């Protein structure tokens, strides 16, 4: 809260509490009341009583005004202090992943803040775990336009997140334990990766909930006005279990792919596709929520988006070939216009593109390593999320 008061023009009102609050912000009504009473012709005793009543009523009114005003500030998303949101719904996508929908607890005008972030690139916000006073970053999913299409109303100011419950993770476990209606404090936006509107080819290599930034990239790059050239976006999405991408069918893979795994801790390679269980849902028409969103975006932007699915438990893993198939098909261009973005758990990013590094309290990109380095790609910007 402190930092918010520093940023806000009204900060000194808060820091110095009620006295100055009243004299600054609400001075017109107070002065008006006093002025009126001083010109009254009532007898002195009655005048004192009346003045007290008017002042008390004024103070109560001002208290309510400032409480409302302060609440509004508290739900104003900003990068310096935590804003109060409320959990509106938690919709399971699989046994571990759910989509969380949050909206400001009190009236706030956050659309401009969101819009600025959407125009800049991939962004996240930090969620607070209040008991432990720790925070973790989560990536907003693009807004659904359903309400608009169906003639309904969009929920104003709401944000959606795909959050995986880590059975041993402090913040994700806490978030999954919350009841609908619970207060959640978030801070942001934090821009993770700027995306230039000039970009014309994007390969997204996503692991698990790392699909959220890929959905963001689609939203950022393909919302361009009709007539403007739109980029090609290809997504390679790896999941531990089929339930996380239920009903997802690959666009460019002829069959189950892959020889190598990003998973650095097991011996899944050795099992190989020959011993793999059959995909549990290949014949099913049922689709998970994120697969549905991808399908909808593909229909909305025909020919711009392709998605290939990989599932650990089916022994299908992203291999170098899936990367080069896309990079070799892309038009020759400069590195500014062609991006490979890798997003997901740390082990996944390390395997695909090498470690990120910490220096002077900041997490930096580090050099490109892993699978992508071995491919020796030229004229591609590589970004690790
Ligand atoms: C920019 C960004 C965006 C992100 N977006 C999303 C998103 O949209 N959705 C999403 O689900 N996640 C996202 N994440 C990941 C998220 O921020 C958290 O890292 C994740 O939810 C785990 O946090 P946690 O507090 O639950 O787990 P933590 O408590 O941080 O634990 C992480 C892992 O470490 C292990 N661990 C913890 N302590 C120990 C210990 N002492 N010894 C051994 N192992 C230990 C835990 O078992 C767990 O597996 C994002 C991360 C970043 C950086």
From TrEMBL:
Please classify the protein's predominant subcellular localization into one broad category. membrane
Tell me which cofactor or cofactors this protein depends on. Answer: FAD
Concerning SUPFAM superfamilies, the annotation shows:
Ferredoxin reductase-like, C-terminal NADP-linked domain (SSF52343), Riboflavin synthase domain-like (SSF63380)
Q: Which GO terms describe its cellular component?
A: membrane; mitochondrion
Q: Name one GO molecular function term.
A: oxidoreductase activity
Where does the record place it?
Membrane
**Residues that hold FAD according to the record:** 136, 138, 162, 171-172
Listed InterPro entries: CBR-like, Cbr1-like_FAD-bd_dom, FAD-bd_FR_type, FNR_nucleotide-bd, OxRdtase_FAD/NAD-bd, Riboflavin_synthase-like_b-brl
Domain FAD-binding FR-type as annotated: residue spans: 80-196
Which branch of life, at top level?
Eukaryota
- Please name the PANTHER family in this protein's record: CYTOCHROME C MITOCHONDRIAL IMPORT FACTOR CYC2, NADH-CYTOCHROME B5 REDUCTASE
The protein's name in its UniProt record: FAD-binding FR-type domain-containing protein
Q: What is the lineage of its organism?
A: Eukaryota, Fungi, Dikarya, Ascomycota, Pezizomycotina
């Amino acid at each position: 809260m402190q930092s918010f008061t520093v940023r806000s023009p009204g900060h000194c009102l808060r820091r110095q509490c009620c006295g100055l609050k009243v004299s600054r912000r609400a001075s017109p009504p107070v002065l008006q009341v006093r002025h009126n009473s001083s010109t009254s012709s009532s007898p002195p005793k009655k005048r004192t009583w009346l003045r007290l009543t008017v002042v008390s009523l004024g103070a109560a009114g001002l208290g309510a005004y400032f409480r409302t005003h302060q609440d509004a500030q508290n739900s104003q998303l900003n990068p310096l202090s935590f804003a109060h949101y409320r959990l509106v719904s938690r919709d399971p996508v699989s046994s571990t992943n759910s989509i969380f929908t949050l909206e400001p607890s009190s009236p706030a005008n956050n659309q401009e803040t969101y819009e600025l972030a959407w125009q800049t690139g991939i962004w996240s916000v930090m969620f607070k775990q209040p008991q432990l006073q720790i925070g973790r970053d989560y990536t907003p999913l693009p807004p659904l336009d359903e309400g608009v299409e169906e003639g309904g109303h969009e929920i104003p100011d709401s944000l959606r997140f795909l959050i995986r419950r880590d059975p041993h993770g402090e913040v994700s476990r806490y978030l999954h334990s919350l009841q609908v209606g619970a207060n959640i404090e978030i801070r942001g936006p934090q821009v993770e990766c700027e995306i230039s509107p000039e970009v014309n080819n994007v390969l997204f290599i996503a692991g698990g909930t790392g699909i959220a930034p890929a959905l963001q990239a689609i939203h950022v790059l393909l919302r361009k006005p009709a007539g403007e050239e739109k980029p090609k976006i290809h997504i390679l999405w790896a999941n531990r279990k089929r339930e996380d991408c239920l009903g997802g069918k690959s666009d460019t893979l002829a069959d189950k792919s892959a020889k190598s795994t990003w998973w650095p801790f097991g011996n899944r390679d050795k099992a190989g596709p020959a011993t793999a269980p059959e995909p549990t849902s290949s014949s099913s028409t049922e689709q998970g929520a994120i697969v549905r969103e991808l399908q909808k975006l593909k229909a909305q932007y025909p020919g711009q988006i392709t998605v290939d699915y990989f599932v650990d438990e089916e022994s299908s893993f992203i291999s170098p070939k899936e990367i080069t198939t896309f990079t070799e098909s892309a038009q020759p261009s400069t590195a500014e216009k062609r991006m490979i973005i890798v997003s997901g758990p740390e082990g996944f990013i390390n395997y695909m593109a090498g470690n990120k590094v910490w220096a002077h309290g900041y997490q930096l990109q580090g050099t490109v390593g892993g699978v992508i380095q071995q491919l020796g790609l030229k004229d591609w910007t590589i970004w690790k999320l």
